[in-house]
Amino acid sequence: MTIKRIYILNGHPAESSLSKLFAEKYSDAAEKAGHDLRITHLHDLDFDPDFENGGYKNVKPLEPDLEVVLDNLKWSEHVVVLTPMWWGGLPAKLKGLIDRILLPGEAFDTRNTSRLGLPSPLLKGRSARVIMTSDTPNWFFRFIYKYAMVHQLRGQILGFVGFKPTRITHFSGASHPEPATVEVWSKKISELGTQAA
């Protein structure tokens, strides 16, 4: 097994959540397997999630916590993002973090474009795993919502800046799961952590 540098970002804004539990399960298993780890919990970060200016010419400086997150992304070989799905998308604070740190010159290059006209990704050579919770049943998420949030995360965010492959693990019925269900989910998370997958 190849030892990897893994960065875990718990993107749930609350201090206690399934996402935090799963982040810790993944971290514990990966550490026991010998992987090099860094972990961040979104609720611990102090930053303004508002991008504000709506352009890249007058970007406000990153707060120290955001500089650490960006450094961890660059350090990583594999990134694990844990997030709930709220109203079909990411929690506002997590989306704000993405808006603030995935900037030109850091995450993508608008001066060098592909044959399709897309900016060149600057975070290539890294893989990602998204662990998502929701109340929306998986079949409904797939056939009715057409995996919209998956397409956003895999293609328009992580893939856009170079993370490939990006794999998705989705647990539905997450608001009031039975303890036995959480145990099954936790076991799966631990297996992913051991494999750095």
What is the element string, with H for helices and E for strands? Answer: EHEHEHEEEHHEH
Contiguous runs where pLDDT drops below 50 for at least 5 residues? none
Tell me the strand percentage band: 15-25%
User: CATH-wise, what's the superfamily?
Assistant: Flavodoxin domain
Number of helices: 6
Question: Compute the gyration radius: what is it?
Answer: 17 Å
InterPro entries: Flavodoxin_fold, Flavoprotein-like_sf, NAD(P)H_dehydrogenase_qn
GO molecular function: NAD(P)H dehydrogenase (quinone) activity
Domain Flavodoxin-like fold: 4-179
Protein name: Putative NADPH-quinone reductase (Modulator of drug activity B)
Q: What's the helix and strand layout?
A:
Elements: E1 5-10, H1 18-32, E2 36-41, H2 64-75, E3 78-84, H3 92-101, E4 108-113, E5 119-121, E6 126-134, H4 138-143, H5 148-161, E7 163-172, H6 179-195
Parallel strand pairs: 1-2, 1-3, 3-6, 6-7
Antiparallel strand pairs: 4-5
Helix pairs in contact: 1-6
Family: Belongs to the NAD(P)H dehydrogenase (quinone) family.
Pfam families: Flavodoxin_2
InterPro entries: Flavodoxin_fold, Flavoprotein-like_sf, NAD(P)H_dehydrogenase_qn
Tags for this model:
single chain, 197 residues, alpha/beta, Rossmann fold, 5-stranded parallel sheet, 6 helices, 7 strands, globular, oxidoreductase, Flavodoxin_fold
